[in-house]
Structures are given as structure tokens and as C-alpha cells.
Amino acid sequence: MDSPAIPVMRPRLPDADALLPYLRRIDQTRVYSNMGPLARQLADILGAHFHCPAHPLANATLGLAIALMAMGPPAGSLCMVPSWTFAASAHAIILAGMVPFLVDVDEASGMLVPEMAADFLPRAPGHVGAIMPVSAFGHPVDIAGWQDFRARHGLAVVVDAAAGFDTAQGGDLPVVISLHATKVLGAGEGAFILCRDTDLLHRCATTSNFGFSADRQASMAGMNAKLSEYHAAVALAAIERWPQDRGHIMALTRKLAETLPQTAGWRGEVTRAFAANTLNLEFPSGWQAAEARFAAAAIETRRWWGGGLHRHPAFRHCPHLPMPETDRRADLTLGLPFHGDLDGVALRRIADVARACLDDQP
Amino acid sequence: MDSPAIPVMRPRLPDADALLPYLRRIDQTRVYSNMGPLARQLADILGAHFHCPAHPLANATLGLAIALMAMGPPAGSLCMVPSWTFAASAHAIILAGMVPFLVDVDEASGMLVPEMAADFLPRAPGHVGAIMPVSAFGHPVDIAGWQDFRARHGLAVVVDAAAGFDTAQGGDLPVVISLHATKVLGAGEGAFILCRDTDLLHRCATTSNFGFSADRQASMAGMNAKLSEYHAAVALAAIERWPQDRGHIMALTRKLAETLPQTAGWRGEVTRAFAANTLNLEFPSGWQAAEARFAAAAIETRRWWGGGLHRHPAFRHCPHLPMPETDRRADLTLGLPFHGDLDGVALRRIADVARACLDDQP
Q: How far apart are CA B186 and CA A69, in angstroms?
């Protein structure tokens, strides 16, 4: 192949010049972490952007663990989570002292939805103390539905919206959004929790700072998951240019819709109306065959969620229900390149291989 | 009071100009986390500095949890830890799925020493799966002694040397050192693990990256505790100027020895031969009276370790043995200002109040 390789992911965070004004402020305050002025400014700006109080954190994995810990479900109880998610969801549940209870996702959305969770509850092999719905690759989560579910069942609900910066909504329950470098709005490492319940959000903040009450006494289980002033600086610089960045992502998304076939399985993904950081398509002949075709064309791909949680060695022992839809998605889904470096030539190369994959016999 | 307030802590990390060359490299690589080039360079430089393989991490609390998780002690077993430590030690033990077992410290060193731990083992109320010795405010830990202990008892040992950048030694067991802004060498947030057992260090690294094996399968429990390239940049810039910074800290330490009375209780602290980030003195009349005197003189103080773990509400339920020495230290110890902004005038103000405190009747 003479064509240059196309990486599956190629972030571009604010450069040194964009960071410099924030770094000069750090030099002046000489505050470097512990909810300093930049982290507080970030919380304010996120709060205004989402019309919901926000608290910044070191990363989303810790954010999910913290939200669970702050809601105080019984130690050792089960946390229902869709198997179709990133490994971090289950790791966070274990960090919070709970046991992941792996369940299937909805055929239409690829997500655990409240009605399914209600059906699964009586089939749990133990006491369910919490539920963690997951935004599938940034698709919007039914926050109102989960609030109803929580009110009806009295269970803790923490929403993993790691890739959901552009679709996240605040609610009475914690919604955790990642600011990792690979996300649409990246700070390198970082995350934040949205929550209208300000007492609960305050408990999350306390949990992220060693469970310290005002007198530096650990009043509850906790950890260090504070966002430093440096990462707050990167996040603030990234938010400054978010309108342009979002515009570029949506322009690229529109090109996908023009370039890729809109088969029944692909339409929802290539015509999505929100800014996402990945492109995950289902290949009827399976991800392996597609991966091989793309690799031969020097196009990098990735199974962002692998085979689902229940196929990771670390989570195989976790209680689970049958999950035909997760298995179907895991067997077919492959992540293609999707980032700002893709030009028309690269997009056409990707589309040509994708079209060829569709011609493969399942 | 007309005298300006003296803060207890006043970090000064590398400024924007010192960071700029590293930030330009980040702009070139467009790698922002996930053990990028700067984090790898930091690992190499730390390895050379300590003559021991090192792995950088997001912070020391997570580093301690990760080291425990990587050593795989039985879930739910006890981890023996001195009560005379910062809250993070116990939080890390709980994050790792273990139960803190709180014990006393040695009168001479203020630390849990191997002989004491051996004595405490048969008095544990359950199965002890690990031990976490703690460096008291940066004082050196007997690594050889703990290696012997580990060999003799077959127990996991993880050393909390959070404040021990200047005294830490590598060994066959994980030693966790903080790079928090308040430490002698600060990166804002950050930490690293030293360990000569490269298989174990690799397991720590894997644990810090979602337990992922090469194929992005979670092979073990894990989390995200990666050090970003931004914090690696701050750490690298801080290491560049470490010889000068250490020189300044040691010059300040020598001034302490000239300015403060070298009573029996204070001599060890004010004549210490290593760079520390705090100054913790025992006041025979108790910390409360001393705190009041310093506050009246506009001098900020802090009880860095409060009353010991067993007095934090979050850890009161943890199994513990009697701890007369911890209680004695907790009742008397107060942290005084100790940082690079202290000039001769400030030092004399601190010394005057400290001397007056000694005259108080216990």
C-alpha cells in the first residue's frame, strides 16, 4: 500500500499558546489542585452550559465509582450494568465495593432502558443496590425515564455518559461525563458529574477529596479524584473553542452521511445529530472480516467495547443474564476512524472498504 | 496584628515558561495521556534517580490501591496499617477491597516497624492479607526490614512513602511516592511506584490502565490511574530544578536547627538530613494550646494527620489494637509553616511562638 495509514483516533487538544493565559494564572495563584480557581471556573462554565450544577473530577472511571459511593448503596450489593459498555463501568462498580450484574441492551438503542431494567430486577441473583445505565457511544440517555425508575424502585441510579458531552442532560441523579483526550471535548484526563441534587453533588465532591468534612476529618469512604488546575486549564481552553470544534465534528458527520451507504444498520449512526468521538458500524459478516479488510487498506480500526463486559476475563465471574443483543452487537461492531484529521480522500478510502465489507457474505 | 499572615504551606511549581518546551512536545505528538512519551521519559528519569524501575500514576491514593490490587491479597482480608498516617492510606485499602486493621507505631520513629507488625499479626481479629507501612512525614522506611518480613510471613507489603521523595529506596516490594503539589517534588497531582520486581510493577501499570492486557481485554480488576502528559510535563520540569529546590529546602532546614530550640522532642525533626515538605513538632501542652498561640500570631498551622485514622468517623468501625503512641503523638503534634517563602523574619516569628508554647504548662 502506498496510501498513508489512517489512525482510528487522532485527538487535537488546545495547544501551548491557548493554554498559556491559564498557566500564567496558575503561576499567579500558586494553587495547583484541590478545587482551585480554574477548577471552580470550570464547574461554573459547565454548570451554565448544561443548566445543571457540575463538579469536575480526575477521570470518569473514578467519577462513576464516586457517584456510586456517594449514593451509599449496600456494600457488596449488585449494580446492574449493561454488558455493552467500556470496561471502566464494571471497574468503577467494583471500586465502589459492589458487584457488577451484567444485563443485555435494547435492540433499538443498544442501551439498557428503564423498562428492561425493571424486567431484569426480579431475575437478579441477589440484592440489587444500584443501576448504571450507559450512553452507547454518546447517544442520549433517557434521564427522565431513569428518574421515574429511581422514584418507583427506590434504587440508586448513576448514568455513565462518558462519551456524552454533546448529549448529556442534568437530572436529579448523577450523570458522569469524561473529558479524556479521546472525547469530543478533551482535557487530557478529566471528567465531571452533573447533578441537580446539590446535596448529592456535594457528597460526590467530598468523596473525591478523601471524604473530608470541613475539619479534615474523613466522614465517609473516599479517595483522591480531584481535577488539577492544569487539567482544568486544558478543559477551559477546550471549551473556548467548543463551538468551532463541534462545527467541525458535525461537518464531518454530514460527510459520513454522503459518503457511506445508509443501510438499515448504519443509518442511525451516520446520520446522528450529535457530536460523537467514534464511528461504530455493524458489519453483517462480522467484525473480524471487516477488520482484516480495513487493515489491508492501512486503515486502523478498534473494537471500542470489545465483546462486552461478560467476555472480559476480569468480569466473566460476574452474575449475568442472557444477552443476545449484546452478543449480536459485539460480533458485528467495528469502530472506524473518526476525527478531525480525516479529509475527503481519507473518507473515500474508508467508504470504499466499508462498502466492500457489505458485499461479503455473512 | 500588623504582621502578615504566614501560610502553613505555599507550593511553587515550575512556571509556564519552564513548562513550555514540554507543552510544545505535546503539541507535536498529540498524545495527551495513556503512557505517552513524556510519561515514559518521566519513568526513565525516576528509574535512574532511584536506581529502581518506576511507573508514574495519577496520584498516590490510587497508587496505594493499585499496588495492593496488583499483589492480589484475598478479597475482604485485613490490611494492617498504622493509625498514625494520612486518611488516604485507609481509603486506598478500602478501594482495594480490603479492611483497614489499625495498629500503633514505634515510639522512636512514629512508624510501624517490622518487629511490631510481627507482634500484632497474632492479635488480628481476622485474616491479614497485607501490610502497609507508612513513612512518617518523609522519614526513611526500613525497606530491607520489610523485605525480610515479607519473605518470613509471605504477606503482601506496600509502602506508603507519599512524602518520601527524598528518602525513598527501591526494593522488591512496591513503594508509592506522591507528586502532589504539596510535596517536595510536585507535579500538581501525580505519583509513582518504585519496584524492583518488574513483573509486579507491570501488574501495577496494567491495573492502572483498566487491567487491560495487550488485546484491550480486562484481565484483572483495575481502574484509570494514568498520569497524563500534562502532569508528566510538570514533573519533568520539577525534576530539572530538583538540585536547586532540594538545596533551598535543606538551607531552610538548617535555619530551623539554628532558630528552634532542640528539645528532646524536637531535635530529630529540626535536624533532619532529608528534604521534607512539612514540619511537625510535639507540644507538651497539647496541639490545641499551641494552635491557639500560633493563630493569635497570624501563623497558620495544620494537623496533617489529625487524630490518627482511628479517630476519623469513616474509620472508627475498623478493627484496631490499642495505640498509646499514636494517641500521644496525635494529642501533641502540630504542623508549622515550612516552605520556600519563609524568610528570616518569618522564621523568627514562628520560633518565638514555638518557644512560648514550650513554656506553657502541660
A: 29
Long-range contacts of B239-243 (CB under 8 A, 24+ apart): B239/B42, B239/B45, B239/B46, B239/B49, B239/B185, B240/B14, B240/B18, B241/B14, B241/B18, B242/B185
Beta bridge partners of A57: A191
Candidate from B23, B189, B311 with C-beta closest to A226: B189
pLDDT in tens, B199-226: 999 999 999 999 999 889 999 999 999 9
Q: How many helices (H) and strands (E) does chain A have?
A: 13, 10
pLDDT tens per residue across span A133-163: 999 999 999 999 999 999 999 999 999 999 9
**Would you state the cell numbers that stand for residue B116, as one nine-digit string?**
511490631
Name the residue with cell 522488591: B172
User: A269 to each of A183, A262, A276, B47, how far by Cα in Å?
Assistant: 17, 9, 10, 46
Name which of A278, A283, A264 is nearest A361 in CA terms: A283
Inter-helix orientation angle A344-359/A242-259, to 10°: 40
Q: Would you call B58 and A58 a contact, using CB atoms and an 8 Å cutoff?
A: yes
Contact A211 B314 (CB under 8 A): yes
Residue type, A21: P
Q: Using 50, 70 and 90 to split pLDDT, how confident is the model at B2?
A: low
Phi, psi of A101 (to 5 degrees): -115, 105
The residue among B254, B279, B256, B287 whose CA lies nearest residue B163 is B279
Q: Grid coordinates 443501576 are at which residue? A: A131
Residue A89 corresponds to which cell in the numbers above?
Answer: 463501568
B180 touches chain A (CB under 8 A): yes
Closest CA to B16 of B188, B226, B163, B191: B188
Which is it for strands A191-194 and A54-57: parallel, antiparallel or unpaired?
Answer: antiparallel
B15 touches chain A (CB under 8 A): yes
Domains contained in chain B, CATH given: 16-240 (3.40.640.10), 242-359 (3.90.1150.10)
Residue A234: closest C-alpha in chain B:
B230
Give the model confidence (pLDDT) of A265-315 as tens digits.
899 999 999 999 999 999 999 999 999 999 999 999 999 999 999 999 999
- The CA distance from A53 to B107, in Å, is 48
A-chain CB neighbours of B26 within 8 Å are 13, 16
Please tell me which of the candidates B27, B180, B228 has its beta carbon nearest to residue A16.
B27
The phi and psi torsions of B205 (rounded to 5 degrees) equal: -60, -40
CA distance A79 to A100: 5
Q: Which grid coordinates are listed for A173?
A: 441523579
Task: Write out residues 213-232 of B within 8 Å (CB-CB) of A.
Answer: 216-224, 226, 228-231
Query: For chain B, what is the mean pLDDT?
Result: 97
Q: Which residue of B has its CA nearest to A66?
A: B95
Question: Which of A189, A208, A333 should we substitute to test contact with B (largest number of B Cβ atoms within 10 Å)?
Answer: A189
Other Cβ atoms within 10 Å of B14 Cβ, number: 24
Q: Measured between alpha carbons, how far is A312 from A85 in angstroms, rounded to an integer?
A: 11
The number of angstroms, rounded, from the C-alpha of A12 to the middle of its chain's C-alpha atoms is 18
- Closest by Cα among A101, A111, A102, A106 to A141: A111
Measured CA to CA, the distance from residue A33 to residue B191 in angstroms comes to 14
d(CA A312, CA B178): 31
Whole-model pTM: value is: 0.98
